[in-house]
Amino acid sequence: MADLKPLASASSAAPKKPARRRWPVRLASWAWVGFGLLVIFFLVYPFLVSTNFMFLFGKSPSLADLENPKVEQASELYTSDGVLIGKYFRENRSPVALSQMSPLLIKALIATEDVRYYEHAGIDLTAVLGGVLSSLRGEKRGGSTITQQLAKNLYKIRRQQSRGALGYIPVVSTIVAKTKEWLTAVELERRYTKQEILRMYFNTVEYGSSAFGIKVAAKTFFNTSPDSLRPEQAAMLVGVLNNPTAYNPRFHPVAALRRRNVVLDRMGQAGVLPPAEIAALKATPIVLDYHVEPHIDGPDTYFRSAISQFVDAWCDSTGHDMYRDGLKIYLTIDSRMQAHAEEALHERMKSLQRQFDNFWRNKDKNPWVDEEGNEIPDFIATQMRRTESYKSLANRYRNQPQRLDSALNAKRPMKVFTWKHDDNDTTLVMSPLDSLAYYKHFLRSGMMCMDPFTGQIKAWVGGLDYRFFKYDHVKQGRRQAGSTFKPFVYLTALDNGYSPCDRIRDQRVTINYVENGQPMEWKPDNVTREYTGINMTLRHAMARSVNSVTAQLTEKVGWENVAKYAHKVGITSPLLAVPSIGLGSGGDVSVYEMVDAYSTFLNTGFRSEPRLVTRIEDRNGNVIKQFDPVQKRAISAETAWLMTYMLRGGMEEPGGTSQALWDYELWKNDNQIGGKTGTTSNYSDGWYMGMTKDLMTGVWVGGEDRSIHFTGSQQGEGGRTALPIFGKFMEKIYKDKELGYTPGQFPKPSVKIGKKYNCVSESEPRRRRAEAVDTIAADNLLEQMNNGGGLPDSL
């Protein structure tokens, strides 16, 4: 049988067309599809970026951001008389109008950064293409317009908070950021004029050395204003913009000069200046008048810390930022009164320090002494171990005592405080131990002046010089008040039935009390350990600061009540209710508290919260917070007026402790002054609280440590250390007619005074009288304390 073979189908037998003939058609189709997708992508892509689609692209500026761009701006401090005394900032910036800038500055910027600035709408396509071609050739050439640079500066579009998921992919992140710049630049051009964009640009860019904005830059590098910039100065500042670090003229003068000359060349090419002038300017060196403002700019003052704490707390509660929002903070401080206070304190302390140095030089010993007047051994070594610098060195040289000792005794040049030069500083070669001993020799001081009726603090001097002594002796420092605490005893008495004319005999007394269940007794001494036996009026006893009368009165009214009344009128520190509280041994207090408390007497019994800030404005001058006086009734108006009358006794009663004020030019127009001196045990602290019809002032003087002091009343009591500062200060206040403070009498009582008070024991002409010694002498109560009693060691 023959083999049978299947027949091939007709289709299989037909020849096949080559498949390659179809590829051109397919490629064309794919090209058109790709082109369509690309078009769609470029149409949709900007929308995706601007809306942060699926959080891929990060946040872009909103419409509100574009309409009202927020730029970090320094907050400014102004005194009550309108003087700018400081700033708070992260980026130091003070915007100015375009009309306040040199025209050459504007022309230099356009000639250098964006020659077609007035022709494009935010993006210069010619510059972009040129930049791409330059990059392909390996050259670095920017294509960003001024508007693009402004967009980047205003909205920080390359920063972390502007990143989306794609922002962490190399190259892609750059493309996204650049897209945002373009989109934002176009929107800026739509909403602002070319002039407005230039103004914002100059006020936002960084110029190096922590200078943001043209105003700060002109001041930082040339100590001038933007409208006074010379051509070469304008060219240098425009040149710096390219790289504020690399072209900083302070640190890279050669590079800065080269870059400045590039800018001058471009100014010449643009026809801004003639070629001859350009050549001459290029030949001139860069001459700087360089001054960098710190992040807290302004004079070093002790009240800045209190202001910062107050304003920071307010900002936290309101969502503002003191370092960014361009707030204008208006203070109660009067710059003229502050200057007078600093001058008065410095004049007196310079003289007093000379006396102090001579006093201890004659004794051939250092001023740190014990209760018997003997120099304390190893005092400096002991104090050094308490310092942060010692702790740091001890940690570094742990178990290496020889190296630690070597570091503590290693000498090097140090800038230190001195009274011998007008600028109060000098350079000495010292070791850390030498430096500590050097500073321990200085007496310190604190002073505050307040308007008692409004609570406005007019002057605040916390120490000798903030550059060298950071510790604030107005609010931070607390010391025993000595006899300046006695008025609170008399206040308690007057508010509980006593009158200024009531009498208590000046005599030796014994006060019995119970402490921790144990019977105790206290026999207070007068300073002189003598007793007149006179049946004194309360006014006369307070004026002469008689310890025996004060102690008896304290027992009559109750030492617990004395502490209560002190707290009512303004003392906020803890107080011990002890028999000797009236002599100042109930606890440590600050100058700030004492001025607050005494002010209650002048303010008809209302206690005013001390204030440093009157109002806060936003960057546009709109008041966003007004701080009005905060007052509350503490004591009756009658008691308050009687206390003012009692305090006048220091000048008006024979032998009053304020008599030294007669030596000052304070007695025109029948002027009246009230006040109280105070001195603590061993003359460690000297106080004076002085009041006039308008002002309440407190002054403290003492050593950094209680063991550093004079050893006699002729040098160390408050009437001789602190009172002269008040006297000098008030002289300056009265002589400064612009301030408007005049001598005169205290206000008449605003209510009927039902208690007898006009009881001056004798009438004498107004002249200097011998004042009483005013201090707290050691007595048998102190001896009891040292033998195990419960009160503080130092009265």
Automatic annotation (TrEMBL):
UniProt cross-references to Gene3D superfamilies, sorted A to Z: Biosynthetic peptidoglycan transglycosylase-like, DD-peptidase/beta-lactamase superfamily
Residues spanning the signal sequence: none
InterPro entries the UniProt entry points to: Beta-lactam/transpept-like, Glyco_trans_51, Glycosyltr_51/Transpeptidase, Lysozyme-like_dom_sf, PBP_transglycosylase, PCN-bd_Tpept
Domain spans labelled Penicillin-binding protein transpeptidase: 448-701
Catalysed reactions, semicolon-separated: [GlcNAc-(1->4)-Mur2Ac(oyl-L-Ala-gamma-D-Glu-L-Lys-D-Ala-D-Ala)](n)-di-trans,octa-cis-undecaprenyl diphosphate + beta-D-GlcNAc-(1->4)-Mur2Ac(oyl-L-Ala-gamma-D-Glu-L-Lys-D-Ala-D-Ala)-di-trans,octa-cis-undecaprenyl diphosphate = [GlcNAc-(1->4)-Mur2Ac(oyl-L-Ala-gamma-D-Glu-L-Lys-D-Ala-D-Ala)](n+1)-di-trans,octa-cis-undecaprenyl diphosphate + di-trans,octa-cis-undecaprenyl diphosphate + H(+); Preferential cleavage: (Ac)2-L-Lys-D-Ala-|-D-Ala. Also transpeptidation of peptidyl-alanyl moieties that are N-acyl substituents of D-alanine
Taxonomy, superkingdom: Bacteria
Glycosyl transferase family domain sequence ranges: 84-267
Transmembrane segments annotated in the record for this chain: 27-48
Pathway membership: Cell wall biogenesis; peptidoglycan biosynthesis
Pfam family, one: Transpeptidase
Subcellular location: Cell membrane
Primary location: membrane
Entry keywords, A to Z: Carboxypeptidase, Cell membrane, Cell shape, Cell wall biogenesis/degradation, Glycosyltransferase, Hydrolase, Membrane, Multifunctional enzyme, Peptidoglycan synthesis, Protease, Transferase, Transmembrane, Transmembrane helix
Family: In the C-terminal section; belongs to the transpeptidase family. In the N-terminal section; belongs to the glycosyltransferase 51 family.
Protein name from the UniProt record: Transglycosylase domain-containing protein
Species for this entry: Hymenobacter antarcticus
